[in-house]
Amino acid sequence: MRKKNNSKTVKQAVKPVEVKKEETVAQPVSEPKADAKADVKAEVEKAVEKTTEKVAEKAAEVKADVKDTVKKTTAKAAKAAKTAKEAKPAKKEPVKPEIIVQYQNSEVDTAAVEERVKAQFVAEGHKAGFIRKLNIYIKPEEYSAYYVINDKFSGRVDLF
Question: What are φ and ψ of residue 76, in 5° steps?
Answer without folding.
Answer: -65, -40
